[in-house]
Design a protein that fits this description.
single chain, alpha/beta, Nucleotidyltransferase, domain 5, binds fe (ii) ion, 5-stranded mixed sheet, 4-stranded mixed sheet, globular
């Protein structure tokens, strides 16, 4: 019997999933136990619940898979730090989060009543984006597929696309920090007066009521790269964002995640005054929501074009497609 316990920890929507002999035996988010939406921290109750659902002894778990790899893209991170000299705050926040992730062995051992020396060598660090794509592709009905993940950030990456084939996943392209479609959508969500973690769905809903009158105004905020051998890519105009400056408070310590304001006053110069949470929703806000929705689709279509290139290289006659869109 092969049992793999996967966890997402110290991030919004902390959760666990258990796969036994290639079949999903249990999966649950920690928020179901804490009753706090998007609960971050370590999913202690979730890991115990997964084992209970399967009737499995913790000693029988062969691998503990963590959906983060603190060692991923170290050269990219170092190069970025050298080039841009990020603030002490940003470096401190990243070091703290890296330390927390590294403490996963201790937290897992505590949650399952196992010796930490038993858990530590069984931990598999899985880079965040391949973990997203694996969760989409390996449970899909296709033997081969183009796979894509778009989120805020994970292990310094915000967007990636890959070719899935059998038991393999080959990453074909990535968009790295600080450029992120998730960060673009978060900025517009906060600007429209929805400050809580996970509020993006409200902007998606609001978009249906408006017309995308601000899509042209937003066009320079996301710059699309021409499709080339590296696939479709994009960059943010960073004048509109603060997330890369280290001046944004973020809390992933247990409880509801908190992310400080990620947009700058430049956005108000572009779109007009931001909406405060207590202010009424006006047609202008609906139009901006519709425009954000339309703008966020531009890089996605570029990624789709990259899939076509990937499919061409793989020589597939009629491939399927699996997509993971997550935070
Ligand atoms: Fe993610």
């Amino acid at each position: 019997m092969a049992a793999v316990l996967g966890i997402s920890a110290y991030h919004g929507d902390a959760a666990a999933a258990l796969v036994v002999d290639g079949r999903l035996a249990g999966a649950v988010a920690e928020e179901r136990f804490t009753r706090v939406k998007h609960w971050a921290g370590f999913p202690s109750e979730a890991v115990r619940s997964c084992l209970d659902m399967a009737g499995l002894d913790p000693w029988a778990v062969e691998h503990f898979a963590v959906a983060r790899d603190p060692r991923a893209h170290l050269a990219k991170k170092a190069f970025y730090a050298l080039l841009h000299g990020p603030s002490i705050g940003l470096l401190r926040d990243r070091a703290r989060n890296r330390r927390r992730v590294s403490d996963a062995a201790t937290a897992l051992a505590d949650a399952l009543g196992l010796p930490v020396d038993h858990v530590r060598p069984r931990i598999q660090w899985v880079e965040h984006h391949p973990a997203h794509m694996a969760s989409a592709f390996f449970v899909s009905p296709w033997e081969e597929a183009a796979v894509c993940a778009l989120d805020g950030f994970g292990d310094f990456v915000s967007t990636s696309w890959a070719v899935g084939s059998g038991r393999r996943l080959k990453v074909m392209g990535r968009v790295h920090f600080p450029h992120s479609l998730g960060m673009f959508y978060l900025a517009l969500t906060q600007y429209l007066g929805f400050p809580r973690y996970g509020d993006e769905y409200k902007v998606m809903g609001l978009a249906a009521y408006g017309t995308p009158d601000f899509a042209e105004a937003l066009r320079p905020v996301i710059r699309l790269d021409d499709l080339n051998d590296n696939g479709g890519s994009f960059e943010l105009d960073l004048r509109y964002f603060r997330h890369h400056t280290g001046g944004v408070d973020m809390t992933w310590d247990g409880g509801e995640p908190v992310i400080g304001r990620v947009w700058t006053e430049e956005l108000e110069r572009l779109l007009g005054p931001a909406r405060r949470p207590e202010e009424p929703i006006e047609p202008r806000h609906e139009a901006i929501a519709a425009s954000a929705q339309r703008s966020s689709k531009r890089p996605r279509s570029t990624s789709s074009a990259a899939f076509t290139a990937a499919r061409g290289r793989a020589g597939w006659p009629s491939p399927g497609a699996a997509r993971s869109t997550a935070s």
